[in-house]
Amino acid sequence: MKVLILGVASVQMDAVLELKKMGCETYTIAMKNDGPASEASDHFDIINILDEEALITHIIKNGIDVVYSTGSDLAMPTACKVSERLGMPHFVSYEAAYICNHKNVMRKTLTEECEGNIPYQVLDKVEQINVEYPAIVKPSDSQGQRGIYLIHSQEEFESCFEEAKQYSREGKVIVEKYIDGPEVSVNGYMVNGVLRLMVASDRDTWPQYTGLIHRHVVPGKKFSKEAEKKMERIMEEACNRLGILNGPVYFQMKVTGNQPYIIEMTPRLDGCHMWNLLERATGINMMQLVFKHLLYNDVSELNIAAEKVTPMELVFWCQEPETYMDRSKLELPKDAVYHFYYYKNREKIRPVNGRYEKIGYYIRYLEG
Predict the structure, then answer these.
(1) How far apart are CA 166 and CA 179, in angstroms?
(2) What is the number of other CB atoms lying within 10 angstroms of the CB of residue 31?
(3) Considering Cα of 241, then 225, then 363, then 298, what sign does the dihedral take?
């Protein structure tokens, strides 16, 4: 089988390496040869992942069987649309991928009746805020935690509006009620409209950088069993409302008391390599599950889950953009079972979120 992966970042490299273990021939494309997936794949070409016609030409020319991406909201709508046009295997429609990639449309589609939805307002210019303070301001259609601000007044909103708006391709900003409580990342898997797998992890962020991830811990301990049960119900309902009936789903949630709220949702694996941790913690290789499902309609991987989730953590090293990588300054615990560096020594850190960039990560077991 020939599989084309859109993008060449480290999370796409994960997909390429797992596909090669499965005996697949791998192709990658991106606008620049600036990520590890291009070197890991069998074939790489410089093509804009948003250029549908060039993408279709490339697929037909090379006899590609499946086009997909991991960890990228930007790539998912393109992959789904091209798959629909060519009659290739895909999990969700272009419409569903588009909705998840536009936070304002996602909130509207979920409707006020959805248990985990929150009050919001969409603006393309500075106006009076009618969402209760404190509130979160962010681009309506961005990824990578860009342009996110916590505000407490109209004045603060007006001071950050243009900065948030510049990260939106459609020039819109969404203001959402701030939910106080622990952040939770939830990885799940849908099969025919049923949530067959759900693992919730504590999502610890850098205190000085709103929303930017520092580490994930499984199983999560900052929420109750009652809240976890509600997460399952909310996720399955939200997925069915948006038409995500098959494949991986990733939610960011916050929990107030025992009530979870949806912050983000998307029909893909997360961008934090959590599949790597979860394979060790649950026995299920979600990366291989995705491609076995897509290529062979095989979801048997879901049947080998461990009875309990083994306590583990995934920790990111982060650094300011436009500085230089120095691996000697990064503390790697002796008990780490896996680690990966995004950059070589003396490489300049590229701006992605523009504030505090991931430069690598490690995984280790925790005491139960």
Answers:
(1) 24
(2) 13
(3) negative
Length of the chain: 368
Closest CA to 17 of 33, 1, 46, 38: 38
Q: Which residues of the chain have pLDDT under 70?
A: 142-145, 368
68: left (phi over 0), alpha (psi -120 to 50) or beta: beta
pTM comes to 0.91
Look at residue 357 in the predicted model and tell me its pLDDT.
95
* Contact residues for 84 (Cβ-Cβ < 8 A; gap 6+): 90, 93, 94
Residue among 116, 55, 127 nearest 86 (CA): 55
Looking at residue 300, its amino acid is S
Tell me which residue of 285, 239, 252, 248 sits closest to 268, measured CA to CA.
248
Please name the residue that has the structure tokens 């976890």. Answer: 228
Residue 144's pLDDT is 54
Helix axes 225-242, 103-110, angle to 10 degrees: 100
Question: For 221-245, how does the pLDDT look when each residue is reduced to its tens digit (9 = 90+)?
Answer: 999 999 999 999 999 999 999 999 9
Amino acid (one-letter) located at 21: K
- How far is 200 from 193, CA to CA, in rounded Å? 19
Q: How far is CA 3 from CA 16, 123, 164, 329, in A?
A: 9, 39, 35, 38
Model pLDDT, residue 209: 85
Tens digit of each residue's pLDDT (9 = 90 or more) over 249-275: 999 999 998 999 999 999 999 999 999
C-alpha span between 173 and 158 (Å, rounded): 12
Alpha carbon of 136 to those of 186, 221, 264: distances in Å? 20, 25, 13
The span from the CA of 246 to the CA of 224, in Å, is: 27
Integer Cα distance of 134 and 118 in angstroms: 13
* φ and ψ at residue 95, rounded to 5 degrees: -60, -45
